[in-house]
Design goal:
Elements (H helix, E strand, L loop, with lengths): L3 E3 L1 H13 L4 E9 L3 E9 L12 E3 L4 E4 L4 H4 L2 E8 L2 E7 L5 E2 L5 E3 L1
Parallel strand pairs: 1-6, 2-5
Antiparallel strand pairs: 2-3, 3-9, 4-5, 6-7, 8-9
Length: 111
Amino acid sequence: MSLITITEGANDHLSGIVKKHKAKGIMLGVKSGGCSGFTYEWSVLENEIPDKFNTEDKFQLKNGYLCVQPEAMMYVINTIIDFTSNIAGSYLKIVNPNATSQCGCGESFGV
C-alpha cells in the first residue's frame, strides 16, 4: 500500500502540468492558514528534485514525480488525490483521512 494514492485522473492532470512546464515534478506541502488551520500548497519543481525527498516522499507520475514535503507527510499520509470534473469546473480533490475538519470550500483542513 502506498502512503499516498494518486488516481488515474490525478496522475494524468499532474503529469500534464509537469509536461507543460518541462519540469521534474510537482511538490505538495502543507502550511498554516485557511479557515480550518492548514492549507495544501502546490508548486512545480522545474529543476532537479531536491535531495531532501527520499523514496517514501516521491511518487512516480506518468511524467515526473509528485514529491511530498517530508514535514507535511504526517498530515497527508494515506490521502487519496483525485481529479474531478463537474458543472462547477475541474479540480484536484484531496480525500485526507487525517483531517478532523474541513472548510466548506475544501481549501483548508484541521487535524
